[in-house]
Structure formats: structure tokens, C-alpha cells
Amino acid sequence: MSVFTILNCGTNFDRSKRGELVADFGVMLNGVEYRDFLITDGVGSKGTTANPMPGTFDPFTKDKSAKGQSPSWSNTPMQTLSNVSTGQGTFSPTGHGVLRGLTSSTGKTNAAITGHGWDDNIRHAIAVLGDVFPGLQGTINMIGWSRGAVTCLRMANWIKEFLGPGFDINIFAVDPVAGLDAGARLQDTYFVPDNVKNYIGILALDDMRGDFKPQDLSRLVIQNSMITNLAMLPFPGVHNTPVLLKSSRLPEVTRVVRHLAYRFLTVCGSQFKIHEPILSQIDCCRNYAAMMLKRSEYAKLGKGFKNSLMGGLMDRTAKTNVQGYVAADAKFFVNEHHRECFQMAYPEIYNYFFTNTVPNPLGKATTSFLATDRWAQKLQQLYQTDPDSFELLSAVYTVERKGGMGSPAVWTVCAPGVGAMTVPTPPNVTAAVRMLC
């Protein structure tokens, strides 16, 4: 056994919720659970006889027997520990005190609000890893959504604490949300230890719920950026947009994130018996461009009275600072993966618009090209190959074609370098993103 995969479901979700990314991958992975992979069901999930709600079963048993049937030493607390290093004290997030007071501290609703039960998911994983890797060395790939994504990072911290430094861990975290203020107060929700070698974070820009603040660049603390390749990739949409296809009109985010998750896990060594469709760089560019062209439709998903009851409505930090996540114009590029794909698929167009390598000796704001000119031909090729990317380029910058059909066509194009940024991409971000290209 060299690679073991852990899949952590989100709050109220479990392995049975087909159509959701993490549950689907649990079915698609090759091998046998507990030997090749492990699925942890989300806190607050309904639970079954075979897979009870986290926090209600003995985490050190494979058959998940009830805690009342286990010896006292394995009767672990359901409530979250405040410090895994010392094991002292319990943690309770701030918020929704009235509702929590009206519900059982070991019940489904309370667990969904507080996250209690996720410590037992981590204990269960550590017990399994100790059995699978008796030498305490190997590679662990993880994928999770929501609290399940934060559980991946918490697991990495606990693994280093209790099993030692012998594991290389790779994490694909889809909109990592700890819930309420846990993501700011619990260190293991935001500290990236040096046993994490690659970390991809997906951020849903349009979720406005105050209780759903993600673990983004404003929160994450990387122990050693020379060891950990880390990239945060913003996407349009709300918390569940990356993992669930909710609208046939807006399939692009779900499609691309599934592709990225599959690509990341397979590059890191996980094996699938059922395979995801592979998107080329041009396919990715088309989907990203469609996201930007439908940007206002995605943004509407985050509004509504019901959402306002969950901590109020406010823009996420990543949305107000989205340019800090992309090394070229964020009016055109969704994220760094989009930028890399576009640069690889259309290198000359990329150089013209998004670098300062193309000269503009006269300093003109626009330039005209005949249809026979090199740049006009490249733009025509983009129009024919990737109409969505061409439409987006034309919407953001000056790109106009006049004439043709019997008269010479003339292109009017903005000055080169109009979308260039002067801040280079950090090497650990580039390394993480290029795993996905």
C-alpha cells in the first residue's frame, strides 16, 4: 500500500448522496474501503445502521459500534477539542445559541450547527491509517467539501501529531467552511503543516452567508511554503455550486471542479474504476469564459432572505480581493488555473493582452490590423476555435472586426499588455496549478 485516499463529506451529507462530488468519487474509486480508501460521512448526516452519524459511534472500531457498547477508554467526547496537542478543553463555536439550546447536544441539528462529531471522524481515520500503514509512512490523498474540506486539514495536523512526519499528504478542499467562527479560532482549521505537500482550495465567491466564511488566503497559515505547493482557486457560485449541478443553465463550475478534483487525485496516485471526462486546456478555457459571461447569473445564487438568517449577508473576502488570487486581469480570468490554461492554449494571444512583451512604440491606446496581419489571424483563429473566450475578450477589452465579405476586413484592438499584472505568481502556487493542467 503506497497511496490511501480519504473522502470527507460535508455537513448533513453522506456517502449515499449521489450527484454530489465527494459521494460520487467514493463510488468511483478503485479498491476496497479500509484497505484502499476511507469515506467519512458528514457531521449532522442522517446516518444508517452501517454508517451512524459521526460522534455517535466508537471511532476505533471498523464496524462503528455504538459508544455505549465500547470500553471506557474509547468512549470519546462528541464535542470538539480546543487543542489537539494537549487534548485539554473543549471548543464550542459562537452563534445560534438559542437554537443550540433547544436541541440535544448529541443530536443531528446541534452537530450540523457546531460541527461536533468531526473529531471522531479524524480519530476514525487515524485508527485506520495506523492499521493500513504499520510503518507509519506513505502517501495520503484527501478530498472534502465544506466542513469535510476543513476536516482534511485538521486530519493533516492530527496525523503529524499522533502518527509522526512519515506521511506525504495531498488535499483537494472544496469551499472549506468550518462554520460560525471555528475557522478563526481553531488552529488546526487554518494551519497548514509541512506534511501537506500539495493543497488545492476551491472558493465559491458568491456565497454571502456570514456563518459560511471559508478558509481562504486571509486565514490560512502555511508552515513552510518551500515544501507545500498551495493554490486557491476562486469560482463563481455559492457553497454547493462546485459539487452539485443545481441548474442546467449553469453547469460550468460543477463540470470544471469535478475535472480538477479527478485530475488532482489521479496525478497524486489515487486510482479510479469509473473515470471522469477529461477536459483539454481549450475545453477549460471555454467553460471558464462561459462562467464569466454568465457572471451575473451565478452572483444571484447568493442572495435571498433565507440566506440572510445564517449570519447576515456580506461579500466574502476572496470576492472583494479576487485580483489577489490571479496573476493577470481578474476581469477576464476566473482564477490561476484559467490563466495557465489560456496561456498554454493560446500563447500568442496571451502574450499580446496579458504580458508586456509585445512592443507598442507609438504608445497608442488602440491599433488597427488588416485581416492578413499576424495578430488579426490569431484573433480570427480564437474566434473560430473558442467563441466564448473570444466573446469574453471582446467584452472586456477593445477587439472589433469591421469589413469583410467583399471588402478588406480591419481589426481594431486595444494596446498590448492591457491585462498584464506586475506581481509574479509565487512558485508554490505555480507548481500546484500546473498539476491540474
How do the strands and helices of this protein lay out in sequence?
Blueprint lengths: L2 E6 L12 H8 L8 E4 L39 E2 L8 E2 L5 H5 L6 H7 L3 H15 L5 E8 L1 H17 L3 E8 L7 H4 L5 E2 L3 E9 L16 E2 L6 E7 L16 H16 L13 H13 L1 H5 L5 H4 L8 H4 L15 H10 L1 H8 L11 E5 L3 H12 L1 H10 L2 E6 L2 E8 L12 H8 L3
Parallel strand pairs: 1-2, 1-5, 5-6, 6-8, 7-9, 8-10
Antiparallel strand pairs: 3-4, 11-13, 12-13
Shape: elongated
Low-pLDDT residue intervals, each spanning 5 or more residues: none
Determine the mean pLDDT: 93
The rounded Rg comes to 24 Å
Helix content range: 25-40%
Number of strands: 13
Helix segment count? 16
Spatial arrangement of strands, main beta sheet = 2-1-5-6-8-10
Based on secondary structure, the structural category is alpha/beta
Please give the alpha-carbon distance between the first and last residues.
Answer: 27 Å
Largest sheet entry = 6 strands, parallel
Strand residue percentage: 15-25%
The quaternary state of the protein chains shown equals single chain
Order of helices and strands: EHEEEHHHEHEHEEEEHHHHHHHEHHEEH
